[in-house]
Amino acid sequence: MIEIQNAGWYTTLQDLGRFGHQSLGVPISGAMDLNAFNWANALLNNDPNAACLEMTLRGATLKFHQATHIAITGAMMPALLNFNPVQMYEPIQINKGDVLQFSSTKEGCRTYLALLGGLQTETVLGSKSQYKGLTRQHQINKKSLIPFHEIPFRPKSAKIKKQLINYGDLKLEAFEGPEYQLLNTTSKNILKKKKFSISQNNNRMGYQLNEKIPQPLPQIWTAPTLPGVVQLTPDGTLIILMRDAQVTGGYPRILQLSDDALNLLAQKSTRDQIKFEITSLP
Amino acid sequence: MSKSLPFTFFQMHPKALLLEWQQEPNLDLLHEINCFKTNIESHFKDICQITQGYCTLLIQWKNELENLTEIKAQLETQFRNIDSTQRHKKSKHWTLPVCYEGEFALDLEELSSELNLSKEEIVSRYSQPTYNVFFIGFLPGFLYLEGLDPRLFFPRKKTPRLKIPKGAIAIGGKQTGIYPSQSPGGWQIIGNTPIPLFNPDKKNPCFAASGDTLSFDPISYEEYQLILKAKNPIQYLTKKG
Predict the structure, then answer these.
(1) Do B114 and B194 reside in the same domain of the chain?
(2) Does the distance separating the beta carbons of A233 and B14 come in below 8 Å?
């Protein structure tokens, strides 16, 4: 059992996401930065879908009531284990009674904490990812108790090499969206050349950008969306859909981010800049 | 030569293919899409999900698509395999109580002056039709309904509201629907239903399905409160078929 002594700024429990319920309008959800998430589980030789904590900007303080192993990946968020600094990107042994205290991120936005065997909370429609209206809790609160199983640690024989991802990189790979061709040359050039910045309206559902595209496009008959879709609203605002995004929408879908770009964007927050690198799919 | 396909392909993502029908939404198209979807789901084993729109299907695979030509050919075969008996699936009809008073009718006043219709006339015109459930999307349990009186067509808000209450009855352009939970959204709000639209604890979380029909029954504020406070509000939902 983990006891949450302080929940941090915004902490949720996530796995790979909820698939196959889109016909009921259920979003995919899952870890915002799947790269960092997968890595955390791999370090512990966990099932790839094992649930982790996703901490945003300011981390949690946790007390462990059982022994286990953990791994911390994603945004650089310094942490103290019983007041001693711990390393990210390597398995950490935890004893009964240990207290782990995270501070704020120094680089990036979202940090993942994986635990040996995964966190054992309720599975709703095939996933443990917290989502308002689906799971009993939609975020981790102070005094939350999160159960886990005490199991022996069997590390992978091969050492996992850390690949460095520069969270400060502005470039996001994007494909032309279904309504991209409705844009005029001026709008396309703005999209290709301009640097955009992330507005304060950014969360697990979507990121709004501050700069606008001054071309009103006709609304479309409500059509499917995906995480990573860039929508253009009638007032010219760009909204990038994230993991908790709606499964359908009526705003034109002008771009679609690649998976890597979506993971990178999840590590960015208010005022950070981005630039689209538009390529086309066959 | 075989007949050309009524839809086009667009690769939206390395793992996802979008099929688009260039026509206005209609019931024949809805049934065609529903049958096609069933065939695709049973044919492809490596699909993780299919999302439906009025005139589109988005198919997501578990892995990146390597042989697009082959996949398109298989999809074409599955489309040609739709048989006419499949097209007449049994559907259900639902009647949902809705209150159009006070705090529930956030945009009714604006619609009334912009459309030059009294509030009573809007409610009456909204309660007349039998709506078709085209699909469920946007949010868990959000029903996209077709059949809105053209006099009630009204554009979405230029900037979406950050909080629309649970149960809100909304008009967005030519479409209408119900917000199943509190969420941001850009549609115009005219009323509210006390009936829950989504319950993840149930085996079937949403009572309605694509292809069903639905109508709205106006209720007073007092009736709304009674239903809301009832032990099991869903009993006030009426079902036929």
Answers:
(1) yes
(2) no
CATH code for the domain in which residue B59 is found: 3.30.1360.40
Q: Does B153 touch chain A (CB under 8 A)?
A: no
* Residue B199, min C-alpha distance to chain A (Å): 8
Question: Is A171-279 CATH 1.10.357.10?
Answer: no
Of B58, B80, B102, the one marking the end of a domain is B80
Any idea what the CATH number is for the domain that residue B119 is in? 2.40.100.10
State the total domains in chain B. 2
Which CATH code of 2.60.120, 3.40.1000, 2.60.40, 3.90.1280 fits the domain covering A2-146? 2.60.120
According to DSSP H, which parts of chain B are helical? Answer: 27-43, 68-80, 108-115, 119-127, 221-229
Give the CA count within 13 Å in the CB-facing half-sphere of A92.
24
Over the stretch B6-60, which tens digit does the pLDDT of each residue have? 999 999 999 999 999 999 889 999 999 999 999 999 999 999 999 999 999 999 9
User: pTM here?
Assistant: 0.90
Which of B11, B20, B159 shows the shortest C-beta gap to A235? B159
The tens place of each residue's pLDDT in chain A, 282 residues long, gives: 999 999 999 999 999 999 989 889 999 999 999 999 999 999 999 999 999 999 999 999 999 999 999 999 999 999 999 999 999 999 999 999 999 999 999 999 999 999 999 999 999 999 999 998 899 999 999 989 999 999 999 887 666 677 778 999 999 999 999 999 999 999 999 999 999 999 999 999 999 999 999 998 988 888 999 999 999 998 899 999 999 999 999 899 999 999 999 999 999 999 999 999 999 887
Same domain, B107 and B225: yes
* Interface size, chain A vs chain B, as Cβ–Cβ contacts under 8 Å: 134
B115 touches chain A (CB under 8 A): no
Instruction: Point out the domain boundary residue: B17, B48, B80.
Output: B80
Same-domain pairing of B121 and B61: no
Do A112 and A266 touch, CB atoms closer than 8 A?
Answer: no
Which of A25, A124, A237 comes nearest B139 by C-beta? A25
Q: From the list B12, B141, B186, which residue is nearest A25 (CB)?
A: B141
Residues B109 and B224 in one domain: yes
Contacts of B135 in chain A (CB under 8 A): 23, 248
Tell me the residues of A at the B interface, defined by beta carbons under 8 Å apart.
19-27, 124-125, 132-135, 175, 177-178, 205, 219, 221-226, 228, 233-235, 237, 246-250, 253, 256, 258-259, 281-282
Query: Any CB–CB contact under 8 A between B148 and chain A?
Result: no
Q: B121: Cβ–Cβ under 8 A, 6 or more apart, which residues?
A: none
Q: DSSP strand E in chain A: where? A: 2-6, 10-14, 52-56, 61-64, 68-76, 79-81, 84-85, 92-94, 99-102, 107-115, 145-146, 171-176, 196-202, 206-212, 223-224, 229-232, 237-241, 248-249, 253-257, 273-279
Q: What is the ipTM of this complex?
A: 0.92
Q: Does B141 touch chain A (CB under 8 A)?
A: yes
Could you tell me if B11 and B61 lie in one domain? yes
